[in-house]
Specification:
alpha/beta
């Protein structure tokens, strides 16, 4: 390279003095050639100076894999930009089959570029175990699979399959799979799109599609399969064995008709299936009707997360039978649980679980309560959901599968009156480990009265912080706080968090004119209630029992109105937080280290991340 001379054609052209156009073309060729030489020289320099260039190809492959996994880029192939760094990195990327073995097939890929990428992936995957996500909603897209025989994947190399689509697509693929051995298959996820989570209202006609028994009971599959997830499809419990993860959710919300929903399986079949899975770690299932007699003991020493959906008698029966670690997280969606009298057995079982040695200390009690329904009306949303979190400010857990990862306990019920809400909360608070609860998250509460708030405050001795929304739960809370201030001569709540997100976000997201009008009514209501809060802060200071802080999050302009921030923080011992700004008598400063407020987020049913890929 160092002895290289210019192109002979360029030297001859310079001697003959040709036209500018011809000379420019030759100079461009020489520049391109010299640039390549300099690039190779740069690579040589990097290999001498950079430690990563000295690593063997095997270690580089591992680094690429860890990088793709950490950036959730295995299925999206976002790691491919690493191949542009150098020729060696390009070679390492092309010769690492595991990097190419994560195939995501969805309708947005149906283009020439998408097909080309899939073919390239199949080529570089080679014989590496394949992980496939296949989502085809439209029936006219299924022809894509016809050119691959017998499947897009090779049965002997398939390691993980997520199949989401119409019942017609599911039936065609699963019936064909039942005829072939899949000796490496460890994870199988099946979701029928005949019924989405949003359509699951309790009154829908549920899909009758059933996962072929011949597939799940095939010896070469059942022996190796460790993670099984089935949503909105039927499945026979006799096929369940040797699993580490089991998620079978037929319906979430309480259906109108329970009689034939789970036939022919019974809760005894569920118990027998769990006994065949002694190393089960995660369980989520819709339960059949309760049995007339007790279930056998089910030891599950490795269980860390359980979510049970069904009639409250069925949930109680299975909880009594399961022997699980004290650290296991528990969620129960109890159908037909209308009164506090009916909750007794379930609460006692939860008490036994969460008051054992080794249970985690709970710091946050999150409550959701919508307007209750009468018995003769369909109770589609949960009337009461209670969640416990170990963190000091855990996010509120939504009912019916939208649980925060921090939630250690969640219970969803159907109280029929304000009084039953209060009675259920009393039983739960007395039974659960709430001695160290410092924070009550009531941002999703719409049905509390001042009596309910008084009961909560009286039964939580360590309570210092409350999160509320103005015009939804702040007004009855202030009524209860005035009671404690004037009657009990104390201010039990030291920090009040005001969440105004729905006052700002709802208008931009919703184009419905009626919703806009409702929003315009809520804003002045919120300002009025916040004015009452400012009056309470003043009264507490004058009574010699000032509170510490008020924390306003999202849309502070919507509720402050004509109230000056100074008129609020001068009565607080700590100060006023307005989003990321802290205001006190000592001055104002921006809290750069302040943790961002975590908005409510619905759990993604089928995560696009790669967390479960390894």
């Amino acid at each position: 390279m160092f002895l290289d001379e210019p192109l002979p054609a360029l030297i001859n052209a310079l001697e003959k003095n040709p036209g500018n156009a011809q000379l420019v073309e030759l100079v461009d060729q020489e520049l391109s050639r010299r640039s390549n030489h300099l690039r190779e020289l740069q690579m040589c320099r990097n290999q001498l100076c950079s430690p990563i260039y000295k690593l063997p190809a095997e270690l580089l492959s591992m680094i690429f894999l860890y990088y793709a996994y950490a950036t959730q880029g295995l299925y999206t192939m976002s790691w491919k930009h690493l191949m542009c760094v150098s020729r060696r990195w390009n070679y390492v990327g092309r010769t690492t089959p595991k990097l190419w073995s994560y195939h995501s097939i969805a309708e947005y890929l149906f283009s020439f570029r998408g097909f080309r990428q899939l073919e390239l992936q199949r080529k570089y995957t080679g014989n590496a175990p394949m992980n496939v996500k296949l989502r085809l909603s439209s029936s006219d897209r299924t022809h894509f699979l016809e050119k691959y025989k017998p499947f897009y994947w090779r049965p002997e190399t398939l390691r993980s399959l997520e199949l989401i689509g119409s019942p017609e697509l599911l039936e065609g693929v699963l019936v064909a799979m039942a005829e072939h051995d899949h000796p490496l298959l460890e994870k199988l996820l099946i979701q029928s799109e005949a019924l989405s989570d949003e359509q699951d209202t309790g009154g829908s006609t549920y899909a009758r599609f059933e996962v072929p028994t011949e597939l799940l009971c095939r010896p070469q599959i059942s022996q190796q399969l460790k993670h099984l997830e089935v949503y909105h499809c039927r499945m026979r419990w006799a096929c369940v064995r040797n699993l580490r993860t089991l998620r079978w959710v037929l319906v979430r919300r309480q259906p109108f008709e329970l009689a034939d929903l789970f036939k022919p399986d019974t809760i005894h079949d569920v118990a027998a299936a769990l006994l065949r899975c002694p190393k089960l770690g995660a369980l989520e299932t819709t339960l059949p009707n309760p049995a007339s007699h007790m279930l056998p003991e089910i030891p599950l020493p490795d269980l860390y997360d359980a979510e049970l959906i069904g009639r409250h008698e069925s949930c109680t029966q299975l909880l009594l039978a399961m022997k699980i670690p004290a650290s296991a997280k528990l969620s129960v969606h109890a159908w037909e649980l209308y009164t506090a009298r009916e909750i007794r057995s379930l609460v006692l079982r939860m008490r036994l679980h969460f008051r054992r040695p080794g249970s985690e200390t709970m710091r946050t009690l999150a409550i959701e309560s919508f307007r209750p329904y009468q018995l003769d009306e369909p109770a589609t949303p949960p009337a009461l959901t209670v969640s416990l979190h170990p963190s000091a400010e855990g996010g509120s857990g939504y009912a019916y599968g939208n649980r925060s990862e921090e939630t250690n306990l969640q219970l969803s019920t159907y109280p029929i009156s304000f009084a039953e809400i209060r009675r259920m909360l009393v039983k739960l608070i007395h039974a659960l480990p709430v001695d160290h609860i410092t924070h009550v998250d009531a941002r999703s509460v719409m049905t509390f009265t001042h009596r309910t708030w008084k009961m909560i405050i009286l039964n939580l001795p360590a309570l210092t912080t409350v999160s509320v929304r103005p015009s939804m739960s702040l007004e009855p809370l202030l009524s209860a706080l005035h009671y404690f201030l004037h009657t009990k001569k104390r201010a039990p709540i030291q920090r009040i968090i005001i969440d105004n997100g729905y006052l700002t976000d709802s208008l931009s997201r919703n184009e419905d004119e009626e919703a806009r009008e409702r929003l315009e009514v809520r804003r002045p209501e919120a300002r009025m209630v916040f004015g009452w809060l400012a009056d309470y802060v003043t009264a507490a200071k004058e009574a010699g029992m000032p509170i510490a802080a008020i924390d306003i999050r999202d849309g502070y302009k919507e509720i402050l109105g004509e109230i000056e921030a100074k008129d609020v923080f001068e009565h607080l011992t700590e100060g006023l937080y307005i989003e990321e700004v802290f205001m006190s008598r000592e001055g104002t400063k921006k809290m750069k280290e302040r943790r961002q407020y975590k908005q409510y987020s619905r759990r993604r049913w089928f995560n696009n991340s790669d967390s479960d890929s390894e």
